[in-house]
Design goal:
Distance between the termini: 23 Å
Order of helices and strands: HEHHEH
Number of helices: 4
Shape: globular
Strand order of the largest sheet: 1-2
Structural class: mainly alpha
Strand content: 5-15%
Largest sheet: 2 strands, parallel
Helix content: 40-55%
């Protein structure tokens, strides 16, 4: 589900502005956001699929860069909402989205 507006905030305020600091240890990564970001950043056609080697290449490069830096990635995929526990949140966000585009 993520944090509403976080990607927009980062894109608008920090795009291309990287801080230099030395990070070591574990880093928790949202798996779905990672997949989306890599596809978008490297212009990989995810709609039609089939670009698995290209995606794999960029994914391995990403994880190798983390490993080289001493960062241990922990990738989390939160799965589907089979018990419909997030349904109210999803509908609330959809209503907010509709209000914003009007």
């Amino acid at each position: 589900m993520g944090i509403p507006g976080l990607t927009t905030f980062v894109d608008e305020n920090f795009s291309g502005k990287w801080l230099k600091y030395e990070a070591k240890g574990h880093l928790v990564i949202d798996g779905y956001s990672l997949c989306h970001s890599l596809h978008a950043l490297f212009n990989i056609d995810w709609i039609h699929g089939g670009q698995y080697w290209s995606f794999r290449h960029h994914l391995l490069h990403f994880f190798n860069a983390l490993k080289t830096s001493g960062v241990v990635p922990v990738v989390v995929f939160d799965g589907i909402d089979s018990k419909r526990e997030k349904e109210q949140v999803i509908w609330k966000r959809r209503r907010e989205w509709v209000k914003r585009i009007r």
